[in-house]
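Notes, Module 5: Reading structure tokens.

Key idea: the token line is not a picture. It is a compressed description, and you learn to read it the same way you learned to read a sequence, by spotting repeated patterns. We will look at two proteins. The first is printed below with its tokens.
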Amino acid sequence: MLRIGIVGAGSIGSLLAGCLSTTSTDLLLYGRGLHAAHLTVEGLIVEGIQSQTTSSQRWEVLLAEHPLPESVRGCCDVVIMTGKSSTFDEHLSVAKHILHTDGFVCTLSNGLGHEERLVHAFGAHRVLAATTTHGAYRPQAGTVHWAGKGKISIGPFVYQHSEESVRELIEVLHDANLNPHWFADGAVLLWNKMLLNIAINPLAGLLGKENGALLEPALFEASVSVMLEGAKVARLEGVKLENDEVLVDRLRTVLEQTRVNYCSMLQDIRAGRETEVESLNGEICRRGEILGIPTPLNEMLASVIRHL
């Protein structure tokens, strides 16, 4: 039986925990604040696409406000990090504490560069690339609303893992109704999500509108230009992206499918929280500088977001 650690029991982390609680998987959660306290004492309510109530007896919760106990050192076969980029350092230290020496680790955080840090911390043979398109939010502590059913995509990052090598994890995610898919090229998987994020999040955040506002022709053209600037960086890094027409069609499809959604960057701006722009458009600029190519559109967006 797998023991899965979910580090970052926020919206997506809680959704994963709720769904995985319906399987035979042993679960260890890490979170902070009132929501984590609810998970510890009262359990979790999942509403929306799937409705269920999970008892607090179904998992063990590690509270960020307390030191990590020695009893959980090296106890997890898989660790899934689900927090925002700003929490990565904290969550990495937790993952180091709870992951077994032969275990796998992945992160669902937005942006690039996280997997390279995981490789440095754990070794390439223990790191997987992963993304998710599930949508969730927390209307109140102890409750997560499953707003949009997507999928979890998993692939190799540096080490050439095969689908068979992670078969047990994929089967558990399937049993949990989380719609897992194996993606043979992890670099392409991560860049595909990155390109959508840099094209949608900062513009929708600055506009203060739903994603669908970017379907207006002039705004869509701006989104495409930001995305293709990032795609140029990816291709110079040797990432085998699909052609521009496919990328543009994918962007349009995602905007149509999420037209009523407010992106996470807009939610962060409204709440006065730190945004993930450094791991998104800022990361494009950093990589472009290393390669010696200008990225003025991403630099402009990153600069404006920083100064809000």
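Here is the second protein, with the sequence above and the tokens below, as before.
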Amino acid sequence: MSGREIELLQVAAFTSGGAGGNPAGLVLGADGLSTSDKQALASRAGLSETAFISRSEVATLKLEFFTPTRQIAHCGHATIAAFGYLGASGRLPAGRHTKETIDGLREVFVDGGRAAMQQRPPVYDDVDAAEMLSALGLTPSQVDRRFAPVRVDTGNGFVLVGLNAPDDLTGVTPDLAALHDLSELHDLVGVYVFALTPDSATAATTRMFAPRYGIAEEAATGMAAGPLGCLLNDRGLAGASTLIEQGRFMHPPSPSRLQVDLTVRDGRIQDVRVSGEAQLTGATRLRL
């Protein structure tokens, strides 16, 4: 593939009022690219994730996700970016679709430039709170007593840490090397730090750090919003539908809105869906 020129689309996912959101790279027609080609392109793109779209024999399409440093099983904002862009551009009709990933099939629902992706019911595991808080540069007094650090997995593993107030998010300055090592230890994609926002249209505002995957911080993380929606529901602090904000405390800010909708039966979460808007923001060409 040496010398081949590849078009890379940039699509913002989970935008808020047509602005903000998290940019993802998209490469259409990626069938002829090798794994090393995809990793090289994702590294050159420099975005938190790039999605490579190929034909699938078992799903609507095949999606492979790469951060600048490694492949990842699932990526929420790149899924929303891919299906939202394909829906808005008329390449996919509205309705139910499926994506093939290295971790199996998932449903995705498309309505123009809006897409909703399926995640698994949550699995919770304990982590060492003192180690996690130290890596985040936080003290126990800053943590909401209802939300000690906990690992939640709906397809990717994240540790969720609840703080007392949104203002506490502004000063979070993690030790990325320490967070990287803890992420390896607990098989995490990243750490999702949040605070409840009871006087807002959103249920919580958040920040996400993923140094294990070469991401210092990103503006919207669909695979972390799903676990947070589950945690809030299971703790009796949110209903089946939850709107989450992310990106407000980034530098520079990039406010994003992530909608989490749960199916709950007999007190147990049966299905998780995360949705948002996607918007094409640019395109470039990269040479392999």
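Summary for the second protein:
- The mean pLDDT is 96.
- Residues 76-88 form the longest helix (13 residues).
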